[in-house]
Amino acid sequence: MISLKSLAITTAHICTVSLLALATAAQAQTTAAPQSADETAASDDSAIVVTARRRVETLLEVPVSVSVATTEQLARDQIYTLTDLQRITPALEVSQTSGGENNGGARLRGLGTAVFNSSVTPSVAFVVDDVPQGNLAFPQLFDMGQVEVLRGPQGTLFGQSASAGVVNVRSVAPSLDGYSAQFGADFADKGTAGAEYGLLVLRGAINAPLSDKIAVRVASQLRQEKGLQRNVKLGNDSNIRDIGVRGRILAKPTETLTLNLTAEYNNNRSRGTNFFVLAIAPTGRPNSAASNNAFTNPAGNCGMTISARAEQYCSELEPAQQSEVLSLSGMVDLDLGDVTLTSITSYRKLQREVARQDFTRLAGAASARSENLLNKVNQFTQELRANYSGSGFDVVSGLFYAKYNYDQLPLGGTFGARTPADRVGFSICTAAGTFCIPGAGVPTFTREDTQSRTYAAFADVTVNLSDQIDLFGGLRYTDFSTSLGLGLNRVTTTNRSSIKDENVSGRIGLRYQPNSDLNVYASYARGYKTPALVVNADPSVATVNLKPELADAFELGVKYAVAPGVQLEANAYYNKTRNFQSQTQLLINTQLVSVANNIPSVVSRGFELSAFGKVSDNLTFNAGYQFNVVKYPTGFLSDDGVNIGGQQLVFAPRHKASLSGEYSRAVFGDVLGFLNANVVYKSATLLAARADPRYRFPAHATIGGAIGVRDEDSAWRASIFVRNLTKQREPTAYLANSFAGSIDGGIRAWPVGGLTARVVGLSFDASF
């Protein structure tokens, strides 16, 4: 467990490092960037400001494809998790499964992290309050001020984890203006009003200025989800509980010095949530009849119902795991006139305890499980940045350092034990441990110890060639090294391998602004994603050496303000990625496992359209559409050995559209009635790299919305809400089912609340 003592010590260390780094840089600079994004947004409500280029700009003028979800839209569309974010922009897909928060599970324009391993760098970076989350992006979001989704390679300014794009999140900042508080709750009961699972969300925040120079904001959220899955054997519903607490301190000791300190703690506890659930019955393959009977015959097993809802499974032992994350950061800004120096220091620590994770969901037989495993992950980063804004040009430059450590250890238990409470590592055993495969095999524990280090230097420049034309571009140099140590059935590692890599990436482009309402831009960017050492599920080879990804991306875009508060955007893009990091599903030792590999080349091309704004005092909207062609290369073999070259990449719909909006009108006095809706349409989407057409989820629309009343000044709001109104059954991913050592034709799915199952409930918010 993470102690308060360690929290205090680490916080003090971060503050010291940030101040020392800034003081060192100040000696080399004598001449700040604009005020912060939080301050700019507060001072000008007519424009949406973004920090897509590490400087404060309006959404209209920034020459980058950016989708923005404001505080109002995030609340309206009930964005509580990373997976929920895919509803705010057509370009983004998030497919998190068990443990998937290690690298976020996000994809932009069809490109993203396709390797289920915590040592692989994300393709889409998650950045919260200027701090890169790296491989430790936690699934819960709360007290968000704004979310920016940047498409295309963004590595020049955001680093090695941004080869496909960035999700840039800003939490609500402390305010010196006065005391305030917010409280909200959502509640849904499984079986009531058509809800297919239970949901409870409690959220709150308090802002307190301690003086005219210091303010504190404390925010928290509890999210509990019950009954998305059900263990028919034990009669238990799944229970997922997320708790998050964040404290932020804003201090402005002088007119030129600003400090932002943040501490955040998150805890995720999951009980009865199984690793994929049978959603399509076994048929037409060896052992399919026996497999069907084993799952559905009460005499042989427990009589579960197989359905696209992916709800029921059988297990004699309840799956259980817990994760907790501690995040600490210190950001210091020093305004020196034309130059602002910024130091950002962060420490992030994750601890995951896997008491039991069941992979085959079959009672009365030898089932594949991981048990009594402890994962310890931590990351330290330091960035030192200088922003210069002068006459005719501006510059953002800096240095970056990151240290990442991943360690897998035993969580109690006894090496070689077969009994349920004592098994350590991966095994294929009956629940009681009376029989294990293969033969006299016992649970196998593999010690994994990954250590990665990154040094980087970057610079990004914008030059005004004329009053209407800007030239922009930049370079980033990255020096990366990683090592992987392995050990079997012991705490020490005995076999260590390492790799090093250097890279220069960058971008260049032109922006043409004939007037304040129009922005036309064109750019080229080189994306980079670091290599990786991955433990091989095939015992014949200990590790897989993944080559680094290199992407060449071209983009042409236009932004136009058609009326006050209403903006249109369009862009076309082409991205070719070499050595795309992926994985293949193989049957090894009777079990389906993932083996990492590189795909030689993947091309993503298409166009995006968006429109958003406030049509009137009563109507706001946000609409988007993406046409995206991203295919497997010629001759590519699927997991079932069929050539699927030329077919659309997994998790990448060719067409995706989203529409979100709210209409309100006065009903009596200062009370307004409102109706909001959000609709997401996807064309048929491949959910596993297999040729079988059943793995392609059909085209569909997912509909959500709410109807209610609120105060004219939004001091309070009450509504009835629904997500997935028509009960679409889209899971986040598909996985082949195996039985008796072979693929039986069945398909397993990972269900997601609001995506695979419908929820209907009540919501209330109040501000003071």
Q: What's the helix and strand layout?
A:
Layout: H1 4-26, H2 37-43, E1 49-50, E2 57-58, E3 66-70, H3 71-76, E4 92-94, E5 106-108, E6 111-112, E7 124-128, E8 131-132, E9 144-151, H4 155-158, E10 165-171, E11 180-188, E12 198-209, E13 214-231, E14 236-251, E15 257-271, E16 277-280, H5 288-296, E17 312-313, E18 320-335, E19 339-358, E20 367-389, E21 393-410, E22 425-429, E23 436-437, E24 446-464, E25 469-488, E26 495-515, E27 518-529, E28 532-535, E29 543-546, E30 549-563, E31 566-588, E32 591-614, E33 619-631, E34 655-668, E35 671-682, E36 685-686, E37 696-697, E38 700-711, E39 716-723, E40 734-739, E41 742-749, E42 759-767
Question: Which labels suit this protein?
Answer:
768 residues; mainly beta; Maltoporin, Chain A; 22-stranded antiparallel beta barrel; five-stranded mixed β-sheet; 5 helices; 42 strands; 56% strand; globular; disordered N terminus
Number of domains: 1
Distance between the first and last residues' Cα:
35 Å
- Report Rg: 26 Å
Which class best fits the helix and strand makeup? mainly beta
Residue-averaged pLDDT: 89
Tell me the helix content.
Answer: under 10%
Proportion of beta-strand residues: over 45%
**CATH class annotation:** Mainly Beta
Total beta strand runs: 42
Q: Indicate the overall shape.
A: globular
Helices, by number, come to 5
Low-pLDDT residue spans: 3-35, 40-45
